[in-house]
Protein 1
Amino acid sequence: MGVTSSPLPATGVVPILTRCARFLRGALLLISALTMLLPFIWMVWASVQTPTYTATLTTPFSDWHWQNYLTAWQAAPFGRYYLNSIIVALATTTGQLVTSILAAFAFTHLRFYGRRILFNALLVTMMVPGELLLIPNFKTLSALHWVDHYAALIIPWTASVFMMFTLHQAFAAQPRTTYYAARLDGASDWQYLWRLLVPMNRTVITAVGILQLISTWNAFMWPLIMTNTDRLRTLPLGLLTFSSDIGTNYPLLMASTVLVIAPLIIIYLFVQKNLILGISQVKWHEKSH
Amino acid sequence: MLNSRPTVRSTLKALLYIAPLLVISLAFTFWPLLEAFAMGFYRHYNFYLNQIGSLSLANFQFLWHDAAFQLALRNTLIFIIGVVPVSIGLALLLALSLHHARHFAKLLQTIYFLPLVTSSVAIAIVWRWLFSAEHGGLNGWLAIINRTPVDWLNDPRYSLLALIIVCIWHSLGLNIILLLASLQQIDRRYYLAAQLDGANSWQQFTNVTWPLLTPMILLVSINAVIVNLKVFDQVYALFNGSAGPANADLTLMYYLYQKFYVEDQPTIAAACGIVLFGITVGLTLGTLWVLRRHHYPQRGWSPS
């Protein structure tokens, strides 16, 4: 790998300095990996302690209290929060994918008046912090009577210039010959888009879709301001409400935290290769939730 | 078809494809952008009836003289200075080590990136426990090295530090991914050429890796500054809906939230948003200017 594996191998033993460097590197990687993992380990570990557990890590381990998860689940309407999070995350992501795919296709494959101006005008909005828009958007949503409805959590987020731009780059890199061949064979633009272009770009589409799913699932400030009732709270909000109700019952608190983050961690473990590829190719800048 | 000239017909067709994105952007990005800018200048404004008294700079003057705003500005500045250099430095070190790691590189990547997919509220709640005075994990460690326990979340001297620690931990993974990706894009032939010229690892780092990586480091840093400028979730969750002891963790974004949602002063919140926007645009343009001046290749990555 790059620097250390020289094409001109040094004869004899590896120099002592290189060995030291390699050891230090390994130690650094290991220690930081443990630091990243520790809060997660503590979270799971504390979540199975007795409900009266208050002491530090040094307390001897007694028994697995898996029922904490059931208790936490029943202590607050977590089922409702889950449902809300799933509805909002899926609807937002699907909406964004559809609007972005359609627009990216038009900008890359169709010729029309005002194409460049429109595209640049949209790109400029990527610099605008979403928080600046929060106040007027709240006003608009109040006027529409959407506050405390799913619509307020979903519709404003179904257009993402960031996602459109990423797909635009992918679609533009597609060889033109496929498009010509499909059109000559009698396919309409619509058929070409959904039967060829989208399947051919499924890697990048999945990557941006998952990035969006993560940011919607974890969104906090927007749902905090746009909802006032328990009925519409998403998981992060529900978790925070629960945490203020429950005080210092750490085992239950940690069990509920695990419940909130588990779905994304599981998805992440399945798609991580795709996701890391996506993040490194894609710019990490959209209007944040 | 491609390469044909635009016609009215083709324009109408293309607009149909763009319409969904365009309509929503117009309603929830373009329009509120104009409105937010206007609102910053309103005086005696009734938010609910949409009655505007007059236009003036009074909101900005208020911000200029408001002690809480100055505190928020100061805290945000200290916070950014605390988070960004440490996070980028650590990320660089770890990305370089990961790049050369022979074993477990994939597993380590998975671990480093875990916080990225975790809700910042959930993270803050776990850290709330780690920081807690009586039974927190961190004080347990301090006890081992014979230091007096610290009341992290209730002592104004330490609560900003607590926020900084949480945010470094949370943001490290993203910075590692971005730096690692650009490390992997460096053409191996540069290293082979350097090795043939007899360069050792350190010389290869200073003469090949560093110059090629500088633009990316700059971009990642600016991105980190912009993201951290807007820190809110972690503050809210770590201090359970307050800005920390004695407002020690009051950030600009929290100030905006408080003015808008708690104190019902939307025009002042809008003015604060404009200030935030100005800082963001200034930083972005400044970075682009520096990059242009040095003729660095941009590799398709630009800050937000």
Protein 2
Amino acid sequence: MRRKKLWLIMIIIIMWLNCIPVSAVSSVPYHTYNYDYWEYIYYTPAAYIPRENISGVNTGSGMLNNPQDIFVAEDGKIYVADTGNNRIVVFDSSMKLERIVDSFENEGKKDTFSSPHGVFVTSDNKLYIADTDNLRVVVLDENGSLNRIISNPTSEVLAQDFVFSPLKVVADYAERAYVIAKNMFQGIMAFDENGNFTGFTGTINVTISTYEKIWRRLSTKRQREKQIQFIPTEFTGLDIDEDGFVYATNIDSKGKQSVRRLNPKGQDVIKKSNRNVRGEGTLSGDLYWRLQGDYSGASRIVDVVYRGYGIYSILDITRGRIFTYDDEGNLLYIFGGRGSQEGTFKNPVAIEAIDDKILVLDAYRGEIMTFSATRYGNLINKAVSLRYDGDEASAVKLWKQVLELDSNFELAYVGIGKSYLAAGDNKKAMEYFKLGMDREYYSIAYKRYRDDILEDNLSYILTAMVVLTAIKITVSRIKKVNAGKAERGL
Amino acid sequence: MPEKQKGDCDMLSKEKFKYPFYVMVHPFDGFYEIRHREKGSIFVALMLVFLFGLSYSINRRYASFVVNYINPRSVDSRVEIAGIFIAVLLFACSNWSITCLMEGEGRFKDILTVIGYSLLPMVLTLIPATILSWFVASSEEGLYYLIINVATIFTVILIVIGIMTIHNYTFGKTLITLFISFIALLIIIFIILLLIYLLQQVYMFFYGLYTEIILKL
């Protein structure tokens, strides 16, 4: 009797244990979703989950005050522009305080920073600081000595009263510096290795629709003054890839394109996705938004990070979301959100990445928030990078695992379809390309499939044609003979 | 007189069904006889409108993946067929109201018949084109679009010729009336919306009255 009772209790305990969620990770404090071909929202597993918050307090650097930029150097060191404290804080890759850069020697005298908004480190550890209120960009060598100062750009294209207050800076392998300056709408300012201003790059042209033109013509001068000015948008954030292409973000209130990839000539060469019902995808975060109230309006993209293999992530300050795209402009995953819960942002201003970890700098909290990839995020990252390297065959295994977690992920279907196409299983390839909404590859698979069928049945078709012609000839012969007989009979 | 009566009673005779095909290849004569010799049939015209709606819906849903950019979740045959009927009726109404004022000879019945009969090329090609689309790859999709476009242009030409013939207009006047009809169509839609809104107000008034009374009593 007693034994039976014990068994019963054990069974109940086991059943109860089954009810407990396996991991606490399954709930994150934000929505994770994506847009499919038809631009419908579908919910996905979380690609990234909050990991830790690093503030100045728990690392020993003292509170960060309104930090505006973060940069991860090639050796894994993390540089934070601690704007409110006029200094640059450097952490090592395990988030321990390494050093604080708050002054440097300039012509024998000690010089300091004044609200530095941007920081960048080259591969040989030269430190670029956008020293905003001192109206200059300071370049320091690895040992902290002054390398050069970029200030007072002079050019015919610049207005006489233009004040150069740099906000963000990056430099390429040839030490050309690209600077976003306050109130500069003409583009990103490019400087050569000597600090001379060479021109603007990536100018965004203003587009005015016909409707707006007509409306402006009809309105009076006073009305026109009240209307929105048609000025190009300012750039907000910068990053640079290993080939020297600059990734730059800007605010697009229409939500069409907020990130550009500029080649050395300053032309935008970013690819937009064509797997979209409208033909050309957007590169601007959310497709739908509330028109008024909290968290309303198009995504305002404030920073970008290039993560290698053509993958880049952009940060939206409106709703605190991070959108990750691949080299073809496909939206891979979305995560993050604003709020006061752990793992959400108050005022996210900058984004960086170390391997599969993503760092977001929150200016209001003065904290670096880190996110680590889940299995889902990891699989997508790996599969996309394999595809980028042209190794589609090894990506297939990963795509299949992605589909186990998220059966709506269209890129995975295309990836698997390509492997079937390469293996010659055209029918299966067609099926997968259709699920992945890829008309181009579907067509290729279909053509091969159709050719195969024709080839297999060619003998039958030819035989049928020969038989039919033979019958036709005989029938006409017989008719002729009959007609001849009838004539003779008459 | 007796002849006319005969035409009325066998509305569904074989001849009436064959007539749209004659009109398609002889539009001037065909539409003239519809107006003056009672060769047309409202029933056949409405049936063609229905068939057009049906084949349009079938095309949207079943055209092959390569040429089909329609979200299958957005296709509803009932709504589409009803929508086409409403569009045809609205156009006929607006055209009739304009041509009445502009010395058009056609009756409402004739206008409806012209529209219905003109849709025959589309009815005949949409489903074959849908079937053809199952066998084309993306480089050959031009063939599919060619068929659809030729049918559409054919239909538009037939409608213009039809309106011209039944009202006894010149070509220029036809185009002008068609344009004015389009404006009239917008006005009709506006008035209908206004009417709905006003009726709603009246309904709300009486509903308010009703609630007031039952709560006070």
